[in-house]
Design brief:
This protein is about 45% helix and about 15% strand. With about 260 residues, it is an alpha/beta fold. It binds NADP nicotinamide-adenine-dinucleotide phosphate. NADP nicotinamide-adenine-dinucleotide phosphate binds next to helix 1.
Length: about 260
């Protein structure tokens, strides 16, 4: 009998993780590589991605790079064509890029609203569609979208970001219904407050940092590597009957009164 632990293995899988040059995406990529997957790193800085891929390969794991801006549809399509040529398959898509522009709605121009919608929401659809093109003939695949607790609860001064994350939550559920008959699952991970570069300003203000920490049940910020277990689990065979689900990884922030 196979050890049950093997059910969590990603050996032989090809995984594209967008925005994996730092922060949560990088931790997810490292964990997936450590679980046996060939990880394709994405971001807009090819040099940085190449260094990271080299350091993953130096440990005997598999990694390559696909540098492109997720909001650039031509570059995105080209990257998927390369994945098709190189690997002939894609097993896991982690749609992780999420831009933020925190300020009151009155200060937003229409163009700034569109920019966030394009990077966070439109790109989510484009990535899922191109991934599905590869996954449908396989009759298997894992679509994992990184949303946010801002896709469930609201905070003043964050209306546009929050709306894109609510939209992604809808996409995740709709794609679960659309692709379920083809063996493709679609799930979301909704992070709470993580100590990544994106939150550097909040973390450097002790009052704001403390406020966020004490809002969560665990009473602290998440460390970036604490996102990775959820992603490996959802990508693995162990999650074969889970689809359309949003898994909050927030230290109990949204369940606390
Ligand atoms: N950190 C948190 O507390 C938190 C909470 C809730 C939700 N989230 C969500 O989790 C995800 C990751 O957050 P994070 O804090 O890890 O972000 P981060 O530290 O800002 O990292 C973002 C990564 O994405 C890349 N990137 C940014 N824009 C891109 C684009 N247009 N095309 C391709 N790559 C791009 C960046 O590299 P380059 O700049 O080199 O391209 C970088 O590697 C986001 O969706 C975010 O909304 C985070």
């Amino acid at each position: 009998m196979q050890p049950y632990l093997n059910t969590f293995s990603l050996a032989g899988r090809v995984a594209l993780i967008t925005g994996s040059g730092r922060g949560l995406g990088l931790e997810i990529a490292k964990a997936m590589a450590g679980s046996g997957a060939h990880v394709i790193l994405n971001g807009r800085s090819a040099d940085r991605l190449q260094d990271l891929a080299n350091s993953i390969r130096a440990t005997g794991q598999q990694a390559s790079i696909a540098p492109f801006d997720v909001a650039d549809s031509m570059a995105l399509n080209k990257a998927f064509a390369t994945i098709r040529e190189t690997h002939g398959r894609l097993d896991i898509l982690v749609n992780n890029v999420g831009a933020r522009n925190r300020k009151p709605l009155l200060e937003f121009s229409d163009q700034e609203v569109w920019d966030l919608i394009e990077t966070n929401l439109v790109a989510g659809f484009s990535l899922a569609r191109e991934a599905a093109r590869l996954m449908l003939p396989q009759r298997a695949g894992r679509l994992i979208t990184i949303t946010s607790i801002a896709g469930h609860v609201a905070r003043a001064g964050d209306a546009v970001y929050s709306s894109t994350k609510h939209g992604l939550t809808g996409m995740v559920r709709a794609l679960a219904a659309e692709y379920g008959p083809y063996g493709i699952t679609s799930n979301a991970i909704a992070p709470g407050g993580f100590a990544t570069e994106a939150n550097a300003a909040m973390l450097s203000d002790p009052k704001v940092a403390e406020h966020f920490a004490t809002r969560s049940a665990l009473g602290r910020w998440g460390q970036p590597e604490e996102i990775a277990g959820a992603a490996v689990f959802l990508a693995s065979e162990a999650a074969s009957y889970i689809t359309g689900h949003v898994l909050t990884v927030d230290g109990g922030l949204i369940i606390k009164m």
